[in-house]
Amino acid sequence: MTVRRAALLLVLLGATAARAAEPQVVRKHLTPADAFMSRYVYVPFEVPEGTTRVEFEYAYDRANGANVIDLGLLEPGTLALGTTAFRGWTGGERTGGFVAVDDATPGYWPGPIPPGRWHVQLGLYKVGADGVDVDVTVRTSSGPTGPTPPLPARAAEPLRREARWYAGALHTHTLHSDGKLTAQELARMAREAGLDFLAITDHNNTAHQRERIDAPGLLVITGEEITTPGGHANAWGLSGPRAFVDFRALPGDPALQAIVDQARAQGALVSINHPYADCSACSWTHAIPQDVDGLEISNPGAANLALAIGLWDALLREGRRVTAVGASDWHRAGQQPIGTASVRVFAEELSTPAILGAIRQGRVVVMADGTSPPPQLTVKSAGQAARVGESLSLGPGARLDVEVACEGAAYAGGRVDLVWRGEVVAQAPVPASGPIRFTRWANADGYLRVHAYTAAGAPLALTNPVYVTLQGR
Measured at the alpha carbon of residue 388, what is the angle toward residues 329 and 402, in degrees to the nearest 5? Predict the structure, then answer.
């Protein structure tokens, strides 16, 4: 082969082989003051025209847990709250990742690689007293690539055309954030546990949508756990490529309302998670937005559970019809079952709009397990009847006949408490057959609900309220 022909062959090969640029390396020294004042630091890097793959990684001294730094990535665009430039987030679960035209690390989105200034995002979850040096390395390359894969199709909705109580898990994680299962594995486990629907709520991303999920009969709802430094909230009902709700609001920052607005603009419900929790920055320290839809009350530990229910009652007494929900916050094997806790939602059919609409209306019972049927609460007065999530409009002094039916082995030997405006006003044992009956009189605007307990005194079920409004006073 002549030198000229060899040179031509090299040129042709170079046109199809990947070409890598020199690594870009940046060191950032971060201090406790940085974590306190801003929480997020952005490391810029340049991506040249024609790039098809961006790889990024970071390294730092974890100092036995004193330093914990989260990781995310933004393409060219504004860094302001509500930006559409996010390409993904994995928190502290990975030391690096990549995005390419046709693939990406879990938690990140594949797609075209626009040239210009990108940013590695560092979240300063913990920074020790001595500060920490973080080394960020970025590599870009170009070469042959396949097309950006479309999102796989989900099962056609509704999955069932029947008005009934549906069992579901509303707060779960996959390996796209800090969970240990794929979305497919999680869905299969939920179906085997007897659940009808599953909301996947990875931290600050919805990239689990990239996975094909085959779990016949299970409705999968796309969500995101909006993980702010002032507490966490779920957004249920997001969908589509790169669906995302921003999370960068410090405790007390009024910009939190813009985050809620961003979720609602995408048709999502917003529910506060574990308002009292033992992990750092997990408790809710923001103001509670006026238009929040739900509040997770199944917080681990009896004290946190009582505090969460107390917060919910305070909101209800203000006239704010916030729906209480329960969830397992499932991450990995070894913790409680995925349905402990869970919800029963009375919906007209098994579809995303029907389930979310019923949650918004308060037609929800929080359950300690994934299989027991919910108690059936009915309040009758003046020819009207109302069930969980519904309302009665009555004259002062109207008699309220409350009926509670508890079916299933878990209720045997247990008791039911009747709660009026957050106060237990009556109790009764669960009978061997037939409903429990209570009588009250309408003396003020308020709400009734019931709590059911097992024979051992453990919480089993907590209904959302039936609301009572007095007329003609």
Answer: 130
pLDDT in tens, 189-201: 999 999 999 999 9
Domain endpoint, select from 371, 403, 420: 371
- Same structural domain, 113 and 229: no
- Do 207 and 232 belong to one domain? yes
Q: Which of 11-15, 211-215, 357-361, 453-457 has the lowest mean pLDDT?
A: 11-15
Strand positions, DSSP E, 127-244: 132-142, 164-172, 197-203, 219-228, 231-236
The CATH number of residue 468's host domain is: 2.60.40.10
Strands 423-429 and 391-394: unpaired
Instruction: With residue 261 as reference, give the H or E element that holds it.
Output: helix 256-265
The CA distance from 290 to 302, in Å, is 27
Q: Residue 294 maps to which CATH number?
A: 3.20.20.140
Beta strands in 66-190 (DSSP E): 68-74, 86-91, 96-100, 116-126, 132-142, 164-172
Q: Give the CA dihedral 14, 18, 22, 25, nearest 10 degrees.
A: 180
State whether 131 and 231 are in the same domain.
no
Residue 97 lies in a domain: yes
Could you tell me if 273 and 171 are in contact, meaning their C-beta atoms sit under 8 angstroms apart?
Answer: yes
Q: Which two tokens stand for residue 336?
A: 């409680």
Residue 465 maps to a domain = yes
**What value does the mean pLDDT take over residues 323-340?**
95
Q: Say what the pLDDT of residue 4 is.
A: 45
- What is the amino acid identity at position 415? R
Tokens read off for 322:
């916030």
Tell which residue, 361, 231, 354, 209, has the closest CA to residue 286: 231
Tell me: do 284 and 418 sit in the same domain.
no
**335 occurs within a structural domain:** yes
DSSP secondary structure of 40-86: EEEEEEEE-TT--EEEEEEE---GGGT-EEEEEEE-SS--STT-S-E
- Interatomic CA distance for residues 240 and 418, integer angstroms: 43
pTM of the model: 0.94
Tens-digit pLDDT profile for residues 142-156: 999 999 999 999 999
Share of the chain above pLDDT 70, in %: 96
pLDDT of the residue at 18: 60
Q: With left for phi above 0 and alpha for psi between -120 and 50, is residue 47 left, alpha or beta?
A: beta
C-alpha 181: how far from its chain's center? Answer: 16
Dihedral through CA 209, CA 289, CA 377, CA 409, nearest 10? 50
| Residue 280: strand, helix, or coil | coil
